[in-house]
Amino acid sequence: MNNRKSGIEGENIAVEYLKKQGYAIMERNFNTKVGEIDIIARDKDTIVFVEVKARENIKFGQPIESITNQKVRSIIRTAQWYLSSKRKYDYPCRFDVIEILRGEVTHTKNAFTM
Questions:
Q1: Residue 41, number of CB atoms within 10 A of its CB
Q2: Residue 49, φ and ψ in degrees, nearest 5
Q3: Tens of pLDDT along 39-83?
Q4: Computed over its alpha carbons, how large is the radius of gyration of the chain?
Q5: Statement: residue 3 has pLDDT above 80
Q6: In the chain, how many H helices and how many E strands?
Q7: Nearest to residue 93, comparing CAs of 45, 22, 59?
Q8: What does the alpha-carbon distance between residue 94 and residue 42 come to, in Å, rounded to a whole number?
Q9: How far is residue 8's CA from residue 6's CA, in Å, rounded to a whole number?
Q10: Taking the CB of residue 51, how many other CB atoms lie within 10 A of it?
Q11: What is the pLDDT at residue 58?
Q12: In sequence order, what E strands does 1-114 have?
């Protein structure tokens, strides 16, 4: 399976998981010139920016380990862009990572901060 197809499948699994947990999905694949966020959801009154990492094996490490400092900075800049463009300046937010390894979901809340 190619990386893009695996990524789309992983995002679909993550969306279903989040919905079952009571999250409302606000956006998928939010793109700007500074970066992309896989899923933007709402958990009660908190906006959650979700990075999804799907893998079939751990040959190259755990999925979460592939998130570099550069990727974190890109996600944060994109989240700031989103909050500004939607005029959601005072909303609490957090950054989560959903790992999907062989179909099993691991959800790390507050994986990193601004």
A1: 22
A2: -100, 120
A3: 999 999 999 999 999 988 888 888 888 899 999 999 999 999 999
A4: 14
A5: no
A6: 2, 5
A7: 45
A8: 10
A9: 6
A10: 25
A11: 83
A12: 24-32, 35-43, 46-55, 93-101, 104-112
